[in-house]
Design goal:
single chain; alpha/beta; Rossmann fold; seven-stranded mixed sheet; two-stranded antiparallel sheet; 9 strands; 42% helix; binds S-adenosylmethionine
Length: 264
């Protein structure tokens, strides 16, 4: 079967990297794992052997059928042919009587951000997340205020999770070789996320503020937020020092404080 570009199919073929990924995930006999995009099953079987159960969601019907016949004798594996972005995880886990899953994915790069957002919207169903992503995306995900790649995605990650880059993966580890370097990352949900930032406004308002602030990266917060809130409101708010800064220099704690002042 030829790899399909439209599904971002670059299959992991390096046994050493497979070993490193499995050692990092370190599946336990009680773990239930959601694997997004199992493809040819580079990680799936090992995950299924070592854990309680693997739920593998694959969009490509032909690959799904192939993997299904290869894994026919294996219990502890449920193969689901679906687009993860349309998959009702809440309903699925409720029917399976499962509280939480660990997530493992060598992500198709074209949907990295939507998948990360999908997972964050369901963060209370997730124990932890291991992802292979493009190296530049990994830098954006873990960037802190002041870093060149810091943006709204970095703020969302910092709000929801503790994030770490575990190791780099070279293009030669995949078939076909992608044009970019990759990195394997680990995200651990923060259960105290609102308390940690003393966030009193809603998460929706907080995210709206962050998105609007980074809407025009080179402009000050005042310029970017005046569209959302109006110049008069911002003048009355009196946060002059903060509003004259560019979004890349503002830590997530400061966005939370501003969100409380505006919406809290
Ligand atoms: N896990 C395999 C590996 O490591 O070799 C495959 C990785 S490949 C980069 C990404 C996989 O995700 C492909 O099998 C692709 O068909 C699947 N995929 C792409 N978009 C998807 C989606 N929206 N939902 C579920 N699977 C998807």
């Amino acid at each position: 079967m030829r790899p399909l570009k439209r599904f971002g199919q670059n299959f992991l073929v390096d046994p050493n990297i497979k070993r490193k990924i499995l050692a990092a995930v370190h599946p336990g006999t009680g773990d239930r794992i959601l694997e997004i995009g199992p493809g040819d099953g580079a990680l799936t079987l090992e995950l299924a052997f070592a854990s309680r159960w693997v739920y593998a969601v694959e969009i490509d019907k032909k690959r799904c059928a192939c993997l299904s016949s290869q894994t026919a004798g294996i219990s502890r594996l449920t193969l689901i042919c679906a687009d993860i972005l349309k998959f009702d995880l809440e309903d699925f886990l409720r029917r399976e009587k499962v509280d939480r899953v660990r997530v493992v994915s060598n992500l198709p790069y074209y949907i990295t951000t939507p998948v990360v957002e999908y997972l964050f919207r369901r963060i209370d169903l997730i124990d932890d997340i291991f992802l292979t992503v493009q190296r530049e995306v990994a830098q954006r995900l873990i960037a802190k205020a002041g870093d060149p790649s810091y943006g709204s995605l970095s703020c969302f990650v910092d709000y929801y999770c503790e994030a770490a880059v575990l190791f780099a993966i070279a293009p030669a580890c995949f078939r076909p070789k992608p044009k970019v370097d990759s990195a394997f990352i680990h995200l651990v949900p923060r259960r105290d996320r609102k308390e940690r930032l003393c966030l009193r406004s809603s998460e929706e308002e907080f995210f709206r503020l962050i998105r609007a602030s980074f809407g025009q990266r080179r402009k000050t917060l005042r310029a970017s937020l005046s569209r959302l809130l109006g110049r008069t409101f911002l003048r009355r708010l009196g946060e002059d020092d903060l509003l004259e800064r560019r979004p890349q220099t503002v830590p997530v704690q400061e966005f939370a404080r501003l969100s409380n002042r505006i919406f809290g």
